[in-house]
């Protein structure tokens, strides 16, 4: 890890604002989810624009320029266009020269999938410096009349700059282990009811929230234990738990199940809601900026989302 950055659109939508659009209340949303507000991309502000802003900050933090990058991977469910990839658009907007660039689609687990994928590209020796971006304009696929989903999500982006190193000795910075899973049999629990080859339109998020909730703590905990077992590190020895920000009750359920301390957790859900693939780098960056996360800390990331997909990654940052 050489640097990180994040970007949130200016416009804020509070729970009270939402209660004027659908039959809900600040109290219901806060008690069930922990969310108080979310950021919403402005008109004409695209996923690639959010990603570019986050990437610029990550490059600055890394002391690098766009030309230093030879791999761009963008985790997103809300691409600017059906094609080309948002990674290609970000590449052009940033002014990175010809390099490898592609998107990853694993919904809310996208950033964990992207980290794990990029690590393999860097370890192979074919690439030296990667931009890993999670960027979403999830507000664009919400049904703003469905109170069960529209209160949960927000827009934003986060980015990491990762650089290959010769060899990773025990205790050195870098990715230690990762765990990725998908079970497409559970597609009905969380999906978008449209797509290029089915309806010809992008569709809206549909979710059986209580069923997703029931799956979450078990699967997320399984992934976290798997990466820690592979690394031969007790889960409780991590410095920071940076979860996907779907629901504060899910996060607290995992903390309790794995005997983590509340002060090991970085939660941004109150101010940002669920920003899907962007939520992990956004939360990580919040921890960096307020001085909690320091170079060399052991950080455990996890996520679960549509697919269902789920996974975890353990990194010394
Ligand atoms: N305001 C008020 N009432 C509401 C709202 C709302 N915004 N939304 C639903 N309700 C009502 C329902 O209609 C239902 O009413 P009824 O009992 O009269 O039928 C009642 O509240 C309970 O509904 P549930 O869905 O059972 O509520 P639950 O306690 O499960 O909370 C929630 C809902 C917050 C969505 C929760 O299930 C959850 O967080 N699930 C997980 C979501 C998640 O993690 N998604 C994964 C990642 S997202 C991704 O991958 C894209």
Walkthrough of the structure:
The mean pLDDT is 97. Helices cover 33% and strands 24% of the residues. The protein has helices at 15-19, 26-33, 47-62, 86-94, 110-123, 147-150, 209-231, 248-257, 269-272, 279-289; strands spanning 3-7, 11-14, 37-40, 71-75, 100-104, 129-137, 155-163, 174-182, 190-192, 205-207, 240-243, 298-305, 309-316. β12 and β13 (309-316) form a beta hairpin. It is an alpha/beta fold and 317 residues long. It has two domains: 3-170, Thiolase/Chalcone synthase (Peroxisomal Thiolase, Chain A, domain 1, 3-Layer(aba) Sandwich); 174-316, Peroxisomal Thiolase, Chain A, domain 1 (3-Layer(aba) Sandwich). The strands form four sheets. It has a five-stranded mixed beta sheet, sandwiched between helices. Strands 8-13-12-11 form a four-stranded mixed beta sheet, sandwiched between helices. Strands 2-3 form a two-stranded antiparallel ribbon. It binds acetyl coenzyme *A. Residues 24, 28-29, 32-33, 107-108, 147-148, 151, 190, 209-210, 212-213, 216, 246-247, 250, 274, 276, 305-306 line the site of acetyl coenzyme *A.
């Amino acid at each position: 890890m050489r640097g990180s950055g994040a970007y949130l659109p200016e416009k804020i939508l509070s729970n009270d604002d939402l209660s004027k659009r659908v039959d809900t209340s600040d109290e219901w949303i806060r008690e069930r989810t922990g969310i108080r507000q979310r950021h919403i991309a402005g008109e004409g502000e695209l996923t690639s624009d959010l990603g570019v802003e986050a990437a610029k900050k990550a490059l600055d933090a890394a002391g690098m320029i766009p030309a230093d990058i030879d791999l761009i991977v963008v985790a997103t469910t809300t691409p600017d266009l059906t094609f080309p990839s948002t990674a290609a658009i970000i590449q052009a907007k940033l002014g990175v020269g010809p390099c490898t660039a592609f998107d990853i689609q694993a919904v809310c687990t996208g950033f964990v999938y992207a980290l794990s994928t990029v690590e393999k590209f860097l370890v192979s020796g074919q690439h030296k410096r990667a931009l890993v971006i999670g960027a979403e304009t999830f507000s664009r696929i919400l049904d703003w009349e469905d109170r069960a989903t529209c209160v949960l999500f927000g827009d934003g982006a986060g980015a990491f700059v990762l650089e290959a190193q010769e060899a990773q000795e025990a205790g050195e910075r870098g990715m230690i282990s990762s765990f990725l899973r998908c079970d497409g049999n559970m597609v009905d629990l969380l999906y978008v009811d449209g797509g290029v080859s089915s309806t010809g339109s992008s569709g809206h998020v549909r979710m059986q929230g209580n069923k997703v909730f029931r799956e979450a703590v078990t699967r997320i905990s399984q992934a976290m234990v798997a990466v820690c077992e592979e690394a031969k590190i007790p889960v409780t020895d991590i410095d920071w738990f940076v979860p996907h920000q779907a629901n504060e009750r899910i996060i607290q359920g995992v903390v309790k199940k794995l005997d983590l301390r509340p002060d090991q957790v970085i939660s941004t859900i109150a101010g940002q809601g669920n920003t899907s693939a962007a939520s992990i780098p956004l939360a990580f960056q919040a921890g960096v900026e307020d001085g909690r996360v320091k170079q060399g800390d052991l950080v455990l990331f996890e996520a679960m989302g549509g697919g269902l997909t789920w996974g975890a990654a353990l990194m010394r940052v």
